[in-house]
Design a protein that fits this description.
Pfam families: DAO (PF01266). It comes from Prosthecodimorpha hirschii. The strands form 4 sheets. Strands 6, 7, 8, 15, 16, 17, 18, 19 and 20 form a 9-stranded mixed beta sheet that branches. A 6-stranded mixed beta sheet has the order 10-3-2-14-22-21, with helices on both faces. Strands 1-13-12-11 form a 4-stranded mixed beta sheet, with no helix packed on it. The two termini are 29 Å apart. The protein is built from 10 helices and 22 strands. It has 2 domains: 2-73 and 145-216 and 309-367, FAD/NAD(P)-binding domain; 87-139 and 217-306, D-Amino Acid Oxidase, Chain A, domain 2, CATH 3.30.9. It is globular. With 378 residues, it is of the alpha/beta class. The structure holds flavin-adenine dinucleotide.
Amino acid sequence: MATADFLVIGAGISGAAAAHALAAHGSVLLLEAESLPGHHATGRSAALYTPNFGTPLVCRINAAGRAFFETPPEDFAAAPLLGRRGGLTLAKPGEEARLAEALAAATPRDPIERIEATEAARLAPVIRAELIGAAAYEPGVADMDVATIHQGFLQGLRRRGGRLICKAPVTALARDAGIWTVTAGAETHQAPIVVNAAGAWGDVIGRMAGAAPQSLQPKRRTAIVVAPPAGLVVATMPLVEFVGHSPYLKPDGGRLMASLADETPVPPQDAQPDDLDVAVLVDWLERHTHLAIRTAPRAWAGLRSFVPDLNPVAGFDPERAGFFWLIGQGGFGIMMAPTLARITAELVTTGALAEDLVALGIRAADLTPRGARPAGAD
Ligand SMILES: Cc1cc2nc3c(=O)[nH]c(=O)nc-3n(C[C@H](O)[C@H](O)[C@H](O)COP(=O)(O)OP(=O)(O)OC[C@H]3O[C@@H](n4cnc5c(N)ncnc54)[C@H](O)[C@@H]3O)c2cc1C
């Protein structure tokens, strides 16, 4: 049996970052069900830092995290964590007025500028130019090196004396005399504080701890990678989407990654791409771009998990002492990870958020668990 000050469940980006932050304050055990961390949502993202995307609270959390990505701690990573990308939102001819929706998301910190349709066509030559009626450009959108960021947290955890145990699926949690006993595989571990960073399985772990569920809903999203049209260099192309809820595409090495932007509610699972979703995406690409997709593309799916207000949950359970929720990162979990990890360490060790976070409008009360225990539940 291993004991620690803090036990974190789930070694995706959220659990890895929180474990790293907590390891500055005590001993940490990080338990992961899979044989390698990053098998689920963290390894399947679009790897984009999109500062104006998400609820106002999500945007504030991301604004607080930009400094970490631009200037990570010494020894965190050998390579830059962010890469220049930019984001292009297009409106079709006849729908130009709808561009206001995209422009309205801008802030003085992260502007979005209107640009000429001809300039948009030059930036994104893969898009059929006749479909571009108006365009907006967001320079602050960046690529994130997710694998390097994830490894940075895990290696930093190790350097701080923390321990990652893989193939350790948690199956039971019990609290006695102020200590949680956690069963994972054939082992048991103990700690006074447990952090639930189990991604799509957050409510499953919550139920094991006897806590009220947070109505967490995993939603499947599909993506593919395709070769660009012959002779077209796409490496410097921005992220491209049409205004409203549309599929999007971005360079991925020398190829193009595209996603249907689907949000299909599913139970927590090892998500697999649905053939029909892939076919719908290929059809959309053939109608909106110069891509001709002749063979089945490499496809994958991942889960973006939301609670009803679309904000993350980061706080102690009101009824299960020592049980900290860190779930509901939705489609923003990579970019929010450094700040949510800081928030976790601050709430766990001091019970309050640092002044710079409060000054940005981030309040612990907005992150606190929102689940209600059913009447009569013990
Ligand atoms: C297609 C797609 C595109 C996306 N694009 C972006 C993007 O551009 N930018 C962005 O910031 N975010 C993006 N996201 C969202 C981002 O990927 C997630 O918010 C983030 O990865 C969530 O991280 P996590 O650590 O909470 O979850 P996960 O990575 O799923 O990690 C949870 C871990 O908990 C483990 N676990 C579960 N149950 C147990 C148990 N019983 N015992 C032990 N371990 C357990 C799992 O095995 C898993 O490894 C995207 C997601 C998808 C699917």
